[in-house]
Specification:
heterodimer; A: alpha+beta; 6-stranded antiparallel sheet; globular; B: 5-stranded parallel sheet
Chain lengths: ~270, ~300
């Protein structure tokens, strides 16, 4: 098992035009709204090319071995998507198209059961996206472009915001880790350049933190606020007044990161 | 991270020393804002945990290098460190700390976590000494009208006494100890975390993994105590600044001895003056120190007693 790989672009590229063509074959009514509505804001839906029941509307992904999954009729109707999926020589579990509509966001969360250590491989192939799409994993922005293929360890905190005017649609395939997958990941880490960026809001928040360290007035304003939602808003407001632009999601994300770090200490008494 | 200006770390206390990268170069100091809030006479870690309940203190922790901490401390008046307490039991040390803190112009630092983290990096003494001084300087930064800072350490720090002597050669220190039977009874009643090898590596106690057996905390603890006694004896024989104090002297006697040794006014806090204090419990007869360890412990204890007299 390789040491932890947080993410890597994979050494494959697919043809965006052919991906779009298959996408256009899928009727609107085939898409199902995501079941856990507390996870997102806006509109987030899926359609399955491979599922437990074999139905396209069955969008659950977890909890069974690959041999229990079956292709849905959509897989045969989308030959190029099918060829993309079967490029991956792994026992396949769920294969879905995930659609996050313009202006929508998936809240930060972890998928604890999706790490390599659990034998899980989740690959994203962007089918349609835009340049205002924020795909943030462990507070690093990944730029996933149409036709690329990416592995990401989703047991890390991640959130997605579609700040653009068009829908973001990814082909997401889940597979069981095998030697082929491990070799692919190892090769990718060695040979493929994977760039990440600091999200603008995170950079602004970090700069605002530096300001707070030096400013007794900001300290006395923010320190007493014990209630979390009020605290998040107070930090956002104070930041804005000082000329920094970031949202409550970003504050909460950095807060959680730092709190996890604090709690992870082993202190002998 | 930009190097903070000299004035800007006032009111910030080191929360811990963390390893951002491997090796000593990767160590950083994480600071938390305390402002003018005095430190109560409880363990530093408990103070921090209470502080971290507020979201501000989770989000707004800042980091500097050890060098930046040392540079800032160099600009401060030296911390008024008047005494260091080594001991074998948290309960006894806590009692002593409360009595010192009860006298208005004293400040006590009880087992500050960043100090333990630094000591247990295992770095060379020459490297650690200036950092240790800087850390105590930062922890003891001027707060008000306190004129005396007393530092209480973790039980295993007696094994690093040479480091503390190098860092603070003129500071008087005491070794507060107990009769082994009483100590074992108290320790087994509420075993502290250090009796669990996965929480504190046995090396810190000058023990090895095979000193621990499941279900025999008494043996592990007794071996740990013997090692502490040995380190204390070695140090006491070499260093005229050390003083042994036995807990059975009662809290009043303990406080008086320590206060005199630290050249502080030994004016007894009221609750000790009246004599209405609890004597430490004597060992129930059925708690025996295990076998051979017990014999060695008794012998070491008697050597300590001889030094005390």
């Amino acid at each position: 098992m390789p040491s932890k790989i947080p993410w890597t672009r994979l050494p494959m590229s697919f043809e965006p035009a052919r991906l779009h063509e298959d996408l256009s074959r899928i009727p609107d009514e085939a898409w199902t709204e995501h079941f856990n509505q507390s996870d997102y804001q806006g509109r987030w839906s899926s359609v399955s090319l491979r599922s437990l029941s074999g139905r396209t509307t069955d969008i659950s992904a977890h909890g069974a071995s690959a041999d229990m999954f079956q292709d849905t009729p959509l897989m045969a109707e989308c030959p190029y998507l099918r060829s993309v999926v079967y490029t991956f020589d792994v026992p396949l579990k769920a294969v879905r198209l995930l659609r996050l509509e313009a202006g929508s966001r998936v809240r930060e969360h972890v998928d604890a059961d999706l790490g390599l250590a659990e034998g899980e491989l989740r690959v994203h192939v962007p089918v349609a996206t835009n340049d205002r799409l924020e795909f943030v994993v462990a507070n690093r922005q990944l730029k996933l472009r149409e036709g690329e293929a990416w592995y990401v360890d989703f047991s890390q905190p991640h959130r997605i915001y579609n700040g653009g005017a068009t829908d973001r649609i990814h082909l997401v395939l889940d597979g069981q880790v095998n030697d082929w997958a491990l070799a692919l990941l190892e090769r990718s880490v060695k040979e493929v350049v994977t760039e990440t960026y600091e999200p603008h809001g995170i950079a602004q928040l970090r700069a605002f933190c530096e300001r707070v360290y030096e400013d007794a007035g900001l300290q006395s304003r923010l320190e007493p606020v014990a209630n979390m939602p009020e605290f998040l808003q107070a930090v956002v407001d104070a930041g804005r007044q000082c000329g920094y632009s970031f949202g409550p999601d970003e504050v909460e994300s950095i807060y959680r990161e730092r709190r996890c770090e604090w709690r992870a200490r082993v202190v002998a008494q | 991270m930009n190097l903070p200006g000299t004035a800007s770390l006032r009111g910030w206390l080191p929360a811990d020393v963390i390893a951002r990268e491997e090796g000593l170069r990767g160590l950083r100091v994480s600071w938390t804002l305390r402002g003018n809030e005095p430190l109560p006479a409880i363990s530093y870690e408990r103070i921090l945990q209470a502080q971290m309940e507020k979201p501000f203190h989770q989000l707004f922790r800042r980091e500097t290098s050890l060098e930046a901490m040392a540079a800032w401390v160099a600009e401060l008046p030296p911390a008024p460190l008047r005494g260091i307490v080594f001991h074998t039991s948290n309960a006894g040390a806590q009692e002593l700390a409360e009595h010192f803190a009860g006298r208005g112009t004293n400040r006590v630092l009880i087992q500050p976590t960043p100090l333990d983290t630094l000591v247990r990096t295992g770095a060379q003494r020459e490297t650690l000494v200036p950092w240790l001084r800087a850390l105590v300087g930062a922890l003891g930064q001027p707060q008000g009208e306190e004129d005396a800072l007393i530092l209480l350490l973790h039980p295993w720090h007696i094994h690093s006494i040479d480091l503390f002597r190098d860092a603070f050669p003129e500071t008087p220190w005491t070794f507060l100890y107990d009769e082994p039977g009483a100590w074992l009874a108290s320790t087994l009643r509420q075993p502290p975390m250090w009796t669990v090898p996965s929480l504190l590596p046995p090396e810190a106690l000058r023990l090895a993994w095979n000193d621990w057996q499941p279900g025999r905390t008494d043996i592990y603890a007794s071996r740990a105590l013997a090692a502490m006694y040995r380190s204390a004896l070695e140090a006491l024989r070499r260093d005229p600044h050390g003083l042994t104090i036995r807990r059975s002297a009662g809290p009043g006697g303990v406080f008086q001895s320590a206060a005199e040794h630290f050249h502080l006014e030994a004016e007894m806090p009221e609750d000790l003056q009246s004599g209405e204090h609890n004597q430490p419990e004597s060992a129930p007869e059925d708690v025996q120190q295990p076998g051979q360890v017990g014999a060695e412990l008794q012998s070491l204890f008697e050597e300590l007693e001889a030094l005390r007299r």
